[in-house]
Structures are given as structure tokens and as C-alpha cells.
Amino acid sequence: MKILEEVILPGESKTLHLEIARLHTATKLKIPVIISRALEDGPTILFSAGLHGDELNGVDIVRQIVHQGLNRPKRGTIICIPVINIFGFINKTREFPDGRDLNRVFPGSKTGSLAGRFAYHILTHIIPHVDFVIDFHAGGQSRFNAPQLRIAMDDKAVLEPLAKIFHPPFLLYSNQITGSFRSACAKRGVKMLLFEGGKSLDINAEVSKMGVEGTKRVLRHFDMLREEIEVENRQEKMVIISQSVWIRAKQSGLMHDQVAVGTFVRKGEALAYISDPYGRENVMIKAPNSGYVINVNDSPIVYQGDAIFHLSKNSTHE
């Protein structure tokens, strides 16, 4: 296996560095790419995070995968990239310095914008060696995502069985987004499970544990997990969501008494209240349909039009 002009032999582990651009101070920025090959042949799996620089929960999950030695496979190869958007990670922002969202510029260009160049190099140097990807994300702007996997309906036959093995609380069917990493991988025949959990600029221990334990179950399925590593099997049923709806604030104000993420609510039930700061108004936000709350905006101040809840519409249990 040859990646970034480095040869990784069976049984070897190497940390390579993808260097594309520097800071404006001329300081070099290197993206660590951690590669471990077993002596026995097998699939190559990529665990990636940090496409958005402020989504720290995903970074923490891949960090734990490496720290716990889960990236040293019994067979096959595991590639870990804990932080892809190193610029955003340094600045604690979602975007690149050019203001672009890396997860909307794939496949990118060798001579394009800074974000586009990163996208191009990831697809050119890493993805051709990969059979399967789990990409870890978190919610943005104070919006807390319940731990969930997202797959496209077109990938149902291949990815739903793997999602059931990972077994998060929720599996959400969502369409491919033009310019996304997931869409670019799909066009190259590389399937991806997209994990969402937690919120930006925050690390939630429960979300991280679900991400790590789900990863263990997937590696065990591929016979890549070493025998000495213990795996927890979730007993709770996974909720499969085929449709969902975003609920937006109809007015600005202070939001309080929100229901907890993951809660099942009935149509007409109170989700939260929005009040003015002077004690005159206190407006109830009602559930438009029965379903599971899979995202909650936990910001105390909201503006008219802000996304405040993500609610399932049609769901089944597995």
C-alpha cells in the first residue's frame, strides 16, 4: 500500500502527514493520517472526523479509537484522520479561512479555493485505498444531535445492515447533499456511514462512548477487531426514521423548558416555550406530529426562523 508517497507494508503502522497549505504566519500545517496494517489481508476502513473544525465530539471519537488501540486491526487496514479541517479546528470554527464549508465543495480542485484543494487531495490520495468510511460529525450552533447514523435510501441494501450492527439509538434516511464528502465517496463506489452526535464546541461522554462502541461492533463484524478487546452489545431497539421535519421558532425570545433530546412526544405536546425578557409573553411550541426529538437547540436565545427541534415523522423499531 502506497499513500502520500509512503509505502506501508503488512504489519506496519505509520503516521503520515498531508501538508497542503500554511498559516498566514508561514507556519506549516500537517494533517496526521494514521495508518495501521495487519499481516493478514482484509478490507480498508477509514475513520474520519473534523470536516467541520468545531465538531469536537467526532474528533474525540476517532481520538479514542486510536488511544484504545482499536485502529490496530486483526486483519486488513485501518486509516484514522481525527481532524481533516485543521484550519477550522485551530480557530474553533466550522468553515475554512476562505469562508467555505469543506463538506460542500467536494470533489474540489487542485487549483481551486483552499477548501476545494483539501477536498481534492483527500479524494485523490486517501479514498482510492478505502473500501468503507465512517465519518463522525456533531450538531452545529448549539443544536445537540441525538446519536444517530445517516444513510441515503439508495444505499439501504448495503448500509442498513451495517447500521444495525453499529446500532445507534437512531438511523435516519437522508438524501445525498451535493458537494458533500459522503456524496463524493458514493460516486467513487465507497460506502459511508455518517455518524451525528452532540453539538459543536462540546464533548459529550455518552455520545463518544456510543460512537466508539458502535465502531467496535462494526470492526468485529468485519473480523478486524482483536479478540482481547471487549465489546458492549446494546439491548435497546434502534429507531429507523424515514421522514423528519425541522421546527423553527415563530418568534424571537428566550427559549426554555425544552424537552430532552431522544424523547418521544405526542402531537400537540409542548416542546418548549419562548418568552420575551419582560414577562409579558410565554408562547408554547407544540409538536406538529408525534415522533422522536432527534435534535434540540439548547441556546437560551433564539431568533424568528431559527431551527429549534428536529422531529421524526415516520419511524419503525429494529
Main attributes of the structure:
18 strands; four-stranded antiparallel sheet; OB fold (Dihydrolipoamide Acetyltransferase, E2P); five-stranded mixed barrel; alpha+beta; single chain; 6 helices; 318 residues; Aminopeptidase
Furnish the topology, listing elements before pairings.
Blueprint (H helix, E strand, L loop, with lengths): L1 E2 L2 E2 L5 E6 L12 E7 L6 E6 L6 H12 L9 E5 L4 H6 L22 H12 L6 E8 L3 E9 L4 H11 L3 E4 L7 H7 L3 E9 L5 H17 L17 E10 L4 E4 L7 E2 L4 E6 L6 E5 L4 E7 L3 E2 L4 E11 L1
Parallel strand pairs: 5-6, 5-7, 7-10, 8-9, 9-11
Antiparallel strand pairs: 1-2, 3-4, 4-6, 8-10, 8-16, 11-18, 12-14, 12-17, 13-16, 14-15, 16-18
Helix pairs in contact: 1-6
The description of the largest β-sheet is:
5 strands, mixed, barrel
Shape: globular
Number of beta-strand segments: 18
Find the CATH superfamily of the largest domain.
Answer: Zn peptidases
Report how far apart the termini are. 38 Å
The count of domains is: 2
What is the CATH topology of the largest domain? Aminopeptidase
Please give the CATH class of the largest domain.
Alpha Beta
Strand content: 25-35%
- Provide the structure class: alpha+beta
* Total of helices: 6
Nearest-angstrom radius of gyration?
A: 20 Å
Helical amount among residues, as a percent range?
10-25%
Q: Name the poorly predicted regions.
A: none
Query: Roughly what is the average pLDDT, rounded to an integer?
Result: 95
Could you give the order of the helices and strands? Answer: EEEEEHEHHEEHEHEHEEEEEEEE
